[in-house]
Prior knowledge:
384 residues; mainly beta
Amino acid sequence: MTDPALTRRxxxxxxLALLAAGTAQAAPKGEQxxxxxxxxxxxxxxxxxxxxxxxxxxxxxxxxxxxxxRPTWMLAHPSRPVLYAVSETGAADGQVQGKVHALxxxxxxxxxxxxxxxxxxxxxxxxxxxxxxxxxxxxANYASGHVAALPVRADGGLEAPASVQADQGSGPxxxxxxxxxxxxxxxxxxxxxxxxxxGADRVFxxxxxxxxxxxxxxxxxxxxxxxxSGPRHLAFHPGGRFVFLISxxxxxxxxxxWDARQGRLTLAHATPPLSETPKASGAExxxxxxxxxxxxxxxxxxxxxxxxxxxxxxxxxEIQRIASGGQTPWSFGIDQTGRWLLAANQGSNTVxxxxxxxxxxxxAPTDQSLAVGKPTSLxxxxxx
Length: 384
């Protein structure tokens, strides 16, 4: 549902601090490092960093901290000051591959120092995910439709792909002439990898060997979506019973029951299309750590939509629709405290901060924003 009062109002610094204190009393103090992936292609550009005050939501810019071509997607290691970033380059046939970089963060300055850089296993890497032990990294290569599994070393660095699988299929849209692996997740058991393929209108289910960090051929339980849907990104519920999927070409959310023994998805709930705005597209999906709320971004309409999750059925109920604070919210991220949602507005070259109430799941605008050229993703690390 729309909340006109919130979408029109900008909170001042005092009200912002009051909102933060009232909605998350147990939130830790201090700062977080925010890393912002971009579509940068020129020298002197790449990953941008900022400091986020965990109490007030204030952003302090740190500038470019690593010069990488098209670092459009990033992922933070869960226990080390290490960041992984794609370089979305390479050819559609996969003969020329993109790159994946492992970077060590300096918690004091935010600077990123290279650990290793390896081939991505295909062309146009666009998404990364770690297994539960953080010993294996999956790369979805959009341009070529390949999915690669990369071992993670003890120092957080990466080794060359241990295995590469190729998605198969196409769809009715001009953007679906071939497979385009767009996002992946590894199930909590560590036995299966799920890959959302925009071009094939499928969610492929691959066996995953968590010891060898290898992918096997896709199973017969891979899931077909309605033609022209364009599946984009996935998120597992913390309990592991449900998987949530956002589709891009038809902006919509679907909830699937997950059978961890068989590696099988069963549709539990589908929302209506998230927007009636012409050419609107689904972009990002995230779930709160407590599993109570799911968030989705919609480009062209430029909103973040919040949903409550039924823990028994996985059904989604829309509770709010709020402006992202800019144009084309390519992605967004919820910070480590759960009190702030940051939106990467690629079309307006801004990253904006929305205050989040962990109790209700609702969002509110703030006066905090950062100018960043073509931002596309966000990752958070604790600062010193």
